[in-house]
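W.,

You were right to be curious about this one. When I first looked at the sequence I had no strong expectations either way, so I just let the prediction run and decided to look at it fresh. Below is the sequence, 110 residues in total, followed by the output.
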Amino acid sequence: MKLLFDQNLSHRLLALLAADFPGSEHVRNAGLATGSDSAVWSYAAAQGLTIVSKDTDFQQRAARLGCPPKVVWVRLGNCPTAAVAALLRSRQADLLAFEADPKASFLSLP
């Protein structure tokens, strides 16, 4: 499963989760740091990435448009990057099941 971390999540997640989610990207590294939600959405769909964000805009877009791409909404408040990494790592089985479900477009964590 390849993830695309939104601007509101640290680019350091790439290194922390490289073994668990190889091939993942951050919007900053993809040249989308200041890109619109539409640009991020299109990029994720074209690259086969699942968007991971703390932003409700992507959750709403997923509910409206369906997938691809799929969206994971991280519902942790202001917290260390390590806490986000731990959440994603601990829920990896759920994330893989979500990815495999062709009808699922949105997953809320935790």
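Here's what jumped out at me. The CA atoms of residues 76 and 84 lie 8 Å apart. And, maybe more interesting for your project: Residues 37-47 form the longest helix (11 residues).

Coffee later to discuss?

I.
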